[in-house]
Amino acid sequence: METIVEAIDLKKTYMLGKVPVEAIRGVNLRVEKGDFLAILGPSGSGKSTMLNLIGALDKPTSGVMKIDGVDISQLNENQLADLRRRIGFVFQFFNLIPRFTAKDNVELAMSIAGTTRGERGKKAEELLENVGLKDRIKHKPAELSGGQQQRVAIARAIANNPRFLLLDEPTGNIDSKTAQEVIGIIKDLNEKGVTIIMVTHDQNLAKKAKRVVRMFDGLVISDEVN
Amino acid sequence: MKIRDAFSYSFGAIRLRKLRAGLTILGVVIGIAAIAALLSITQGLQNTITTQLQEGLAADTLVVIPGGGFFSGNQDRGGGFGPGMGGPNSGFQLQVNDTEIIEDLSPDILMASATIQRQGYINSSEQNHITAIVGVEYSEYQQIYGTTFVAESGQISPTPANDSVVIGKRLNQLQNGTVVFALGEDVQISWTNATARPPMNETYAGKVTAVLQEVGGFAFGGPSDDSIYIPQSQAEAFFDTAECQTIIVKLAKSDQATIDQVSQLIIDEFAGEVSVISATAVVSLLGSVFSIIQIFLVGIAAISLLVAGIGIMNIMIVSLIERTREIGILKALGMRNQTVMLIFLGESIIIGTIGATIGIALGYGLANVVAVLLGGGGAFSGMGGASAVSDTSSLKITPILTPTVFAGAFAFGIGISVIFALYPAWRASKLKPVEALRYE
Is the interface score ipTM higher than 0.90? Predict the structure, then answer.
């Protein structure tokens, strides 16, 4: 098996004013290619910090976080940025650019990766069609429902053929029916070979994953296969 | 991300905030317009004055005046406007026959001709004008000022009758067409001999034998539209003097080396009691004066551009705060710090480019409007010296927008925009993605 993400004795301490807060207190985790992993935990368990570290948005205080075999602590800011292009982020609040259309938002990820204009336009349309938004490509986020926005975010996340998808509470801001549709899309992607890492506090959502890692108080307390 | 895509992103951000961007651009427009207008009008003014000076003071001509320390050909004496033109500082007087001494100084001197000048009056039965009465050798003066001492009507005889009077164009006809003194008209020439006891009004009868074509400009040492010319021998008798105010020297060559050499010879010959003025020295001094004026004016205009720059910085910082989360998204999608910086600087470059382009066009247009107003209004008229004629011509200014001024103003506009955007752009690039994404 090919290891995509590997955390070894990972620790992260934040300073809350002058008080140090240990958000992650020694986590060991390995994610293999093709996994569909849910990181489950209550608020304050350290799962969001874990998400930031897996997404190379932040560096650990100690320990090792390897993505594709590369220790992110050793990377400079440009290298971290380049690495993030190989990670597909899906945020709880969608984080689409409001002034861009659905198509432009998907294109933006490819534009950052240096894809040519002609190539990315065609691909963006295909991706949006795949998530069922063929007739919404020229709509701006404000003209789309929460579920539709999340689907645009998923299309954007997979636009650069990432090594894995990193989802933060992907159904946290959409109704249950739409959530089912979004989960369906995520499962489809996983079945097509896309590695999925999903952070959630929703037990029902976690049940959809192949593997559930439970966190509590900055530590992994269980790692089970569904 | 490709540079074109980054600029496209910047342009999109500007379009989103049209009013704010428009007002920022307006600030740049005002600054650049002020700079372009002031530069083009001062360059136009300098050009006009220089051209007219060169016409009045031919390049192969030197003007010798009594009094040392004038700026030309005598710069080792400290230069500057010392005693002023024609203002003797030690009682030294140039004499008409000094021309012979000067002519013998160098083979490069073709001719030296004296002018005797007094302030006086020209009267007819209906008109009475104060004017400069200049006694010159018509034939020599014609040779020296072949392009300006030219009759528009009548004839300038090389052997004029004693009562011959040649008048400048403005003494013949006003701009509105009113004839003042006509060709062939009998006139009275008079002056007040203040040295006589008691002071006496001297008068003699003359006849207008020629009217000069319009000279324009400043007539610095040469023919003027506001003067009258009488034969030198007549002037000597009439003013009862052999003292002359200037000696005009015509050179065989007009290169700087000859000018410098001959100037020095003349100064040395008269033991430093004279000054020698050349066209090149006057133009060069004028150039220096205009440079200082330009720096001063552009400095003032640049302040308004600095204010515009602060405006740019202000909206960039506001924009940075508003778009913190967006920057976080861009970074999460893999955008490098320098690309974030480029996007922000791109916005300022676009603002600067639009502002500078409109500003230069507006400034040049404004300069033309000002030039028309000044040209028509006569604000610069009467600088020709001895003019006292009521209707004097105006100084025509053609604003000049040289490629250097164009490029300079353009670069300055963009430069200021970029400089003031550097800090917000740098701050944007340094935002931490985790914190930026968390920003509400």
Answer: yes
